[in-house]
Amino acid sequence: MTTPTTLADRLRDLAEDAPSHLDGAPLWDAGRRHDRQRRVRALAAVAAVVVAVLGVGATVAWPGRDASPEPAAAAFSDLHLPRMIHAPDGWTEGTDEAGPPGVLAAVSMSTRIERDGLLGSRRSSSVFGVSAVDGSTRFLDLRGASADMLGNGTVVLSPDGTKVGYVRYRGEEVVGWAVYDTVTGSTRFLDDPEQAVIRGTDAFEIIFSGDSRYLLTNYSPSGSDRAKDDELVVWDVETGEATSAESQGHYWLPSPGSGPSGVVWSRGQRVLRFDPESGESSSERLPHDVVHASYGPSGELAYVAWGERSRDPWRLVAGGRDVDVGFEPRTVIGWRDAGHVVVGNLRGRVAVVDVETGEARADRLRTDTQTMTPVYATDLWANDLVPGTRPPPADDPRRTTVVAGVASATVLVLAGASILWRRRRVPPA
Questions:
Q1: Main-chain phi, psi angles of 235, to 5 degrees
Q2: How buried is residue 5: exposed, middle or buried, by Cβ count under 10 Å (0-12/13-18/19+)?
Q3: Could you tell me how far CA 289 lies from the centroid of its own chain?
Q4: Are 401 and 96 spatial neighbours (Cβ–Cβ below 8 Å)?
Q5: How much is the pTM?
Q6: Alpha carbon of residue 396 to chain centroid
Q7: Which residues contact 46 (CB under 8 A, 6 or more apart)?
Q8: What pLDDT digit, counting tens, does each position of 359-399 carry?
Q9: Tens of pLDDT along 274-284?
């Protein structure tokens, strides 16, 4: 029998010398149970400390999504377009994590940074939306979208700001379209069941109808790549039903326009309208070749016309006469009301024009992202512009891994040191 140094050593030696008939005695069993319980409680205490430290570390490293609710459904008068669009921080959450953003004032694209493995990251160009309520930004996780292929003309926002339409690609081939609902978060895929790959869409920009109900596309239902075999096809974004608005046979693509209902487009000096619900169509001939035509809330027509000669600047025609807006207009952006139309160019210059008097009031829209020209919810021109909101910096989620790893290692070291100290502790004499 060795010289006992601790109480544990003494008890162990006594157990070795004890008669075998004591095994299973109540007192002996009670002692063994007590020893097991002590070990379990010690392990539980260490586990609790580990969980607590990890929880604190994760909270410090990643506060998580703001627990405040999404902006409540706002009155139309509370929805605004920003004069300045700021790109979100690259680490900003997307709709998969943060949920749908609600009514949007604009969509554009910027660089997004996402986690790759534990400590890695990857960058890509991604679509983001700007809230019409509070100006906050959020990346849009669009189902079936190919970020490398999206850009001007392939991502559009509905006039009311509640739907984002986009082209779906597989590689470099178009396979269909989709519409993301910014309020419910649902996505409607628009597919031609007869066409696995969509043909005849080259250089055509998709566009929503003025009432946000339809998405206007151009492709060949027969699957032909010949120039005259494509058609103007209108999709009901609620049902997914497709209707042909203009049959094949035209060499040039149509120039899409806008109106309070149905779809509008132009060819040469003719402006055409089609109502998908009734199937009725109409057209009117104008004295100029039309670049972009738009009908106002009460049926007023304003359009951007080609110059008389190839080098002449484009101009706005509103109220039946040419209007000088102080710059060369490129498109009719929207209407403030029945008497005021908004026009703009590709550099952010805009003008609100009084259709009756021809008076033009200049303004400017800006953005700090160069990836894609912003697309605005044109209905919101009825309200005043606001300055815009600069997004706050977002948290790098990799910090959670680092802090959690350090915390785990620290706890394990402390737990090991505690156990070693207990084993080596000498009881007082």
A1: -110, 130
A2: exposed
A3: 37
A4: no
A5: 0.78
A6: 19
A7: 411, 415
A8: 999 999 999 876 899 999 999 999 999 999 999 888 877 66
A9: 999 999 999 99
